[in-house]
Amino acid sequence: MEPLEHRRTLIEDRLVEVVDGIEPDALSDDVRHVALSGGKRVRPTVTILACETVGGAAEDAVDFGVGIELVHTASLVIDDIIDRSELRRGTTSAWTEFGHGPAIVASDGLLGEAFALFSSEPAAMQVVAESMVELGVGEGTELEAKPETEAEYMTLARRKTGALFRAAAELGAIAAGSDTFTVEALGEYAERVGVAFQIRDDVLDAVSDAEELGKPTGHDAEMDRPSLVQVTDLTPEEANERARAEADRAIDALETVDVVNTEAHGYLLDLAEFVVERTR
Q: How many domains is the chain partitioned into structurally?
């Protein structure tokens, strides 16, 4: 088994364990549909890799990684309701499968389980709470005060997507017992990776086939959502260049960290490349 796959197995096994422990069964079934329907598990993988990069053990960061994945999944459930998206991760979205009420309850259940995983560490609770505030501001901005310039879009992307990526890496550093500088540096790395991820997502929405992508495409234009392609006159190629610039800055931030585990560090470097080049 490849080392990175081993880390993902740790995440999946713990995620299944958490979901299986949810009561009542109806809530567990709804949460299982959204939490175990696939996904790249990028954020929890970042948590584990960040922890290992600075000397921690993968097992020390698994709960925090699963927690941030649950927070992310909860936000996707609500996004799909707002956007009226019928597909998520190649399957039916929660509201399509169960209706609006059960979907909202499932989102609440995901958040409850997430915070239970963070509750033993005050610093982790603070990091996640701050990221959720940023996420909420970003979502509100997207609905009510759409960005009109590239700079405003970048601020939105840092709040809407970058904040949870930042939290993922900072949680890994916290799990490893890192100092404030290291927590911040890994957070900056991940935030910029998240922004690059979001820009690439915008490009894929504009140019990809829905079946290949695993979710509806053309949604940003249809819903008048503020993607970088919609807000500016940038071509998809130029938008990809913006994503590349963010990925390069992410790598610069990562290089300021004292590396203990070179393998994990290498995977974080690879991730900065992957988010720019991915096709799904």
A: 1
Closest by Cα among 262, 61, 8, 267 to 177: 61
Reference 125, options 138, 137, 111, 139; nearest CA is: 111
In a 3-state reduction of DSSP, which class is residue 37? coil
Asked whether 100 and 82 are in contact (CB, 8 A), the reply is no
CATH number of the domain where residue 185 is located: 1.10.600.10
Rounded to a whole number of angstroms, the distance between the first and last alpha carbons of the chain is 24
Other CB atoms within a 10 A radius of the CB of residue 49 amount to: 28
What tens digit of pLDDT does each residue of 152-204 get?
999 999 999 999 999 999 999 999 999 999 999 999 999 999 999 999 988 88
Using CA atoms, how far residue 165 sits from 63, 131, 132, 255, in Å, is 16, 9, 11, 18
Domain that holds residue 24: 3-277
Question: What digits encode the pLDDT tens for the residues 212-247?
Answer: 545 454 555 454 567 888 888 888 889 999 999 999
Residue 267: closest CA among 70, 25, 29, 3: 3
pTM assigned to the model: 0.89
Residues, the chain? 280
